[in-house]
Design a protein that fits this description.
12 helices, six-stranded parallel sheet, six-stranded mixed sheet, alpha/beta, DNA-binding, homodimer
Chain lengths: ~325, ~325
DNA sequence: CTGAAAGCGCTTACAG
DNA sequence: CTGAAAGCGCTTACAG
């Protein structure tokens, strides 16, 4: 027994494909088909284990009820949770989500956009990569519906949902200052993404204001070489004369490795060095030292992105929506 | 400018759809089309930004080069990493992966299977839910290609890739005994899934062998009420007379909450109570107390599952492949 | 109340 | 060397 199609059901009952299709898709209008026949069709469909072929429907209707999601790394809990929220929420509107990864590679981002378009997704939600501007620009000029999340390019007018990276980072750094830190380092990615430079700017301005700014305490990490870069940076920052007493870490992956290395050097947090992180690592709660962090409203980010995208898909609204949500500081205990 | 199809290119060049299709899909045989025309077609396709409609191709060929992945919770890093590996590996064979969630609900599992089949995926990789046997049985009788991962039903003959839950749990428990624990508790889900009962069995047998088994020290947790159940269990286990000195935690989510609560009670790990966990929480590394855990070979699980599935899809092999991989204990420092 | 027919974009035997 | 035509499974005007 192969797959059951509308045609099979129609033949079985001696009616036309049209009648079966109308009934099964719930589009049958009053008086179109007799009550009797409606019931028969429903029963037969169930009995024959009919499952609609969404590909065929999509081809015909020019719409697949599918959203493509492109994240930087699905194994990172931040993106995992974001993907989860997007999927749960999109499902409410009858959309399926196809999740793909770029691993922060713009080549892969291009590829994923192309694959997802080939699969006729109705729209895209994208966490863009470092050198992804060109691909995003092309998307804009082709009027393909999409929303950027987590990051955006300020010089390209796009839908996007991001957080207040600058303010949050500034407040976090300020909090370290208030806790008495005099030499506060920053670990940040070396990419040119706006959200990253905003985090850096928040750090820099808080320190400048306090007269504590020292560019030598900024360490730029390469994503492809995280482990080594972070370890070297921490080692250098905690060496004899330079020895910092505070650290602001700009992402959760950097934080993980950095904190590990600090402990490896047999230093105590927060006694020897105070740490503040961007993004939560659930583990912060279970360590005896409770590390403060900036927490992003992941569910809201996901929901807003879906709302904007579906609105554009279904109403072809041409204007762009740009949302900046507030990332809070965790309560420090 | 709407979407560009093969027809558009054919008209542009005054050739037939067949010729264009053959060239673009790389199926053109020696002498079928002149070199000149091949080049022209390729160039025009590029110039017009042609992107093949994979839906249409899938409809025609009865094959979509798509794998459906159904996990219990994509926001759980274990499944996030698994999804990541599956996706990366499947891509090498030209397959796209659609990831979906069940939240451990069998109703949702049914729904996801149906949605993915409607989308004409070529096969499924499934982390089955507690009461999911019926759906899995149906899949077996329908001869739809699929592989179970992480969990399986011993009474249903299916392809699956799992780990040696029994042995690993037994060894972990044994290790706690060797560390001098006399009263070792177990936190485990209350579901009837085989992998869970195997973890329990490993714990029980290790204790029985040592003459330390006490069924009152087993606490069953309900997935829908994790937080409260774990907290209550920990509170109870650490009360006056019962007070345990060891804990084996059967999953990473349970571990997180449990360890938190232990610390909340102002107890020290491992001085007051030793803990051993199934599955890694990256955070174990950054806490000052290094908690030992059982680590599953996630990349291998993913790869094996993809290998088995693609083999079944492409070669219609009828026999089932069942793989049990070895989960190691983390090195305790 | 219902059916015949066209067409979404693709591939592939078949005919020339 | 190349094209016309059928058909994958669906939906939807149109005709009766």
């Amino acid at each position: 027994m192969g797959k059951v199609s509308i045609k099979n059901i129609a033949q079985e009952l001696g009616v036309s494909n049209a009648t079966v299709s109308l009934v099964l898709s719930g589009k049958v209008k009053e008086g179109r088909v007799s009550k009797d026949m409606i019931e028969k069709i429903m029963l037969t469909a169930k009995a024959m284990h009919y499952e609609p072929n969404i590909l065929a429907r999509g081809l015909r209707m020019g719409k697949t009820q599918t959203i493509g999601l492109i994240v930087a790394d699905i194994s990172n809990p931040f993106f995992g949770q974001l993907a989860f929220q997007i999927q749960e929420y999109a499902e409410k509107f009858g959309y399926t989500v196809i999740i793909t990864n770029t691993n922060e590679s713009d080549v892969k981002m291009d590829k994923m956009i192309s694959i997802l378009k080939s699969r006729q997704v109705d729209g895209l939600i994208i966490v863009p990569t470092n050198h992804g501007e060109l691909a995003i620009k092309e998307l804009v000029t082709s009027h393909f519906p999409f929303v950027l999340v987590d990051r955006h390019f300020p010089q390209i007018p796009t839908n996007h949902v991001v957080v207040n990276n600058y303010v949050a980072s500034r407040e976090a750094t300020h909090s370290l200052i208030q806790d008495g830190c005099k030499k506060i380092a920053l670990l940040v990615y070396d990419n040119k993404l706006y959200h990253m430079s905003e985090r850096k700017r928040g750090y820099v301005e808080a320190l400048q204001e306090a007269g504590l700014y020292n560019p030598e305490l900024i360490k730029e990490i390469n994503y492809l070489n995280i482990q080594e870069d972070v370890i070297n940076s921490i080692n250098d920052l905690l060496k004899g004369d330079k020895k910092v007493d505070g650290l602001f870490s700009a992402t959760n992956t950097i934080s993980m490795i950095g904190i590990n290395q600090i402990l490896e050097l047999n230093l105590k947090i927060p006694d020897d060095i105070k740490v503040f992180c961007f993004d939560k690592n659930s583990e912060f709660d279970i360590s005896n030292f409770k590390i403060p962090y900036i927490i992003q409203p992941i569910p809201e980010i996901g929901k807003k992105a879906v709302d904007i995208l579906i609105n554009e898909i279904e109403h072809h609204s041409a204007d762009t929506t740009q949302i900046e949500l507030v990332a809070q500081m965790s309560v420090i205990r």
